[in-house]
Amino acid sequence: MVHVVTYLVVGVVASIVLDYASLFSRPVISDYMVEFGSVSLFVGPLIQVLRGLIIAAVLLPFRGVFAQRRGWLWLWLLLVGIGILSTSAAAPSSLEGIVYTQLPLWYHAIGLPEMLVQTLAFSVLVALYERHPEGLLAVLPPVFERLVRALVSASLAFVGYAVISVAFALLAGASIDAEQSLSVQVQGLFVGPFLINFVLAFLAAGGLTLTRRILVGLGSYVLSTAAILTYQVIVLGSPDIAYAAIAPLLPAIAVWLLVPKRDAAKTNQPEAKETRHTL
């Protein structure tokens, strides 16, 4: 999860700051990288889950080292040394890549800040987690835990929208245009659902019973559907009822599954104690 979150956050910021859309369309670079905004861009976040599992499995035997005072530094140097500079393949920003590819030197350099920041953030968070086995959020005020849970839930729900949107485009036989797909007008469609899922996840972060968790999922679906239809009518000019009805399904399921469980007996326990005390 740490890898997925840091990868997405740093990647989004870098894509905006460095203007990946125009960067990837330049000569030589366009032969090496897929078009920015293609299907791969939307599938990428899902691949990071698999990458995160692989990284976790590889680092698991060394977790004791990361809990040390400078554990974050050793982990970061390990990732930079083996994962960036000395990769076995001729990857961008690596020594092999500089020698054996036709990529210009400026391209090797321009990607370094993103990779260094992402691996640094990953290393620091992993080290903090290892130094607090009870959970990093446990040492923070409760509101931070709610905010983090809500952000993770809303972000994963957003990935669900990306997957369904790509599926709709492929089934319709429509081409995915990078500039149009990433335009403010198109991406604005998901702002409302993202905020809705964030608020619902924040309110439910303390844990709910099964019935209330289902209600949260239904609320996410209904409110997101309404938000999408409203945006389509006001901004895009015409509603797409099929998309508005199907798109929120996967995100709503994600929000429902990520709401912490709370035992109904524990929920009613304070009320029972109060009743006995009154009697």
TrEMBL record:
UniProt keyword terms in alphabetical order: Membrane, Transmembrane, Transmembrane helix
| Species of origin | Microbacterium aurantiacum
Q: Work out whether the entry's keyword set contains Membrane.
A: yes
**What is the name listed in the Swiss-Prot or TrEMBL entry for this protein?**
Uncharacterized protein
Regions that span the bilayer: 7-24, 36-60, 72-93, 105-129, 150-176, 188-208, 215-235, 241-259
Origin, by domain of life? Answer: Bacteria
The taxonomic lineage of its organism, from the top, reads: Bacteria, Bacillati, Actinomycetota, Actinomycetes, Micrococcales
